[in-house]
Design goal:
The chain is of the alpha+beta class. The chain is built from 19 helices and 10 strands. It folds into 2 domains: 360 residues, no CATH class; 126 residues, Sandwich (Jelly Rolls), CATH 2.60.120.1310.
Length: 586
Amino acid sequence: MEVLLKTLVSTIKILNKSNLHITKSKLAIILIAIFSILFIYLIKWNGLSGQNYRNTIKSDGIGYYQYIAEILEGDLSQQKINGTFLLKTNNDRVVNKYTIGTAIMVSPFILPVYILQKISGTSIDLYSEYYQKAYSIAALFYLIIGLIAFRKLLILYNTEAKVITFSLFAIFAGTNLAYYSLIEPSMSHIYSFSLISIFMLKIKESTFKFTRQNIFLLAIILGLIVLVRPLNIIIVLIIPFIIFDNYKAVVTQLKANLKNILIALVIFAAIISLQLFVWHIQTDQFLLWSYSNEGFYFSQPEILNFLFSLRKGAFVYTPLVLLSTIVFFFSQKFKIRFKLSALFFYTILIYILSSWWNWYYGDSFGSRVLVDYMAFFILLFALAIDKITIKWQRAIVITSSILIVLNIFQTYQYYYQIISPFDMNTEKYFYTFNKFGEENRNILGGNNDIIQYHKQEPALVLDGSIGIIEQNSNNAFEYKISAEELMNFESSFLEFSCKINRDKDDLSNVYWRISYNDSIDNQLVKSLIKLNEIPLRAYESRTNNYTFRLPKPLNSSDYFSLKIENTTYSKFEISDFKIRVYGIIE
């Protein structure tokens, strides 16, 4: 980190002494690019081990990358179910639940590595070092393209130069954009951010210069946006907000360019049809819902949790988005109709995103789905603080600077596994609020999965309890659950709670072990959960609640086991143990 900062300072000095006459907003992008290159090289690729690049392609990114791997070295029509992203369809074929868009976006960076290795006769491993690094370079490229587009968008709004410069640093360092471009580049969000930023720019340009080329380019960009993440088709609802000042001229131009618009629609349809053909190769079907057993609860959106929850609330983990919302919608400088056009898109966006069955979108830093739309949120911020009194502008900039520092700190905490990736709560949040350093890595425990998407209420399969359990040895406690009663459910969940009464012994290495075993006690799947959600002091007590998704059983003679793994033979007591198992039919 010291090397990184010294390099940035040196770069600023060199640029200041040069006669290049670089504007401050361009300088901001250059500095962000240099910082990003150094961060990727020193931390993402090398880090302490020198092999940190190995986890570049991970999580959802493996599913996106699967398209490239199968097209280059496999067969899209002969994939095997893996239970995560390769799923069985209703005609017994296998489909990749993710769309092909992200693979298309990164392919120009992956293919040169593959071609060079083919030419040189090198053994092909599509997850080896150069492919992982190529993915990082792709994300960096789209980050810079997105920032350039965002800068140009602000210029078209006649935004003050200093506001543009600050907004560029704010969108990068004050949100989770940096995390998903530098640390988890295989996720789709940085690619969506770049495309949506360009889309917003081209829509704004069209209010000044409505050309045939712009219409066709918008069709291509929108097609790619949908291929990367189909739900992002809702970005078209931002158009009334972007064209607000010139909507009459735009409507007139639309009427005069009906032929070009029809051609653009054909281009858009041709691009998204790529996904239809891919689905047909995989499943013999052109149209299907690839997210098997997942969906939206449109009648029960989790709007408050999505925005304010300490588990993963957007306003909590990206507080600059909250500030942007406040300063824009409470500003007196805008017409009511202009604010309503922004509110229209804002409301629909949050409603739809918060209606997804897993409203916090699994393991992630903050609300990762908002990264795609970060240009919109920071545009609100920039417009609100542009050309206002120095007093108010300074106050907002100081406040936002504090929030940027908070975001950087929380990014650090997430990267170093001090805060949980999926089940933070009020107690965990405030316990870790000021924690840093290696000694606090993985300090939190517990496990609180969300119940899988379901159309019917989950069925209660088991309801049990135990009074007091004393522990001072390893594996002294075991609770077995027969798989027979769970065979007919789509999925099942284990829910249990208990009061942990600590003695003087440390409990940091005591775990719940949840395993799936066959009839002859072979352990097929195992998960370890740290006993306490937050560490207990000596002689302290705490009630913990756990929710855990069980793997689908293969045979009725198999069983699930809940044990305490206490290899340090720590002494403690468990009381008020309660356990339930739920089954989901559909």
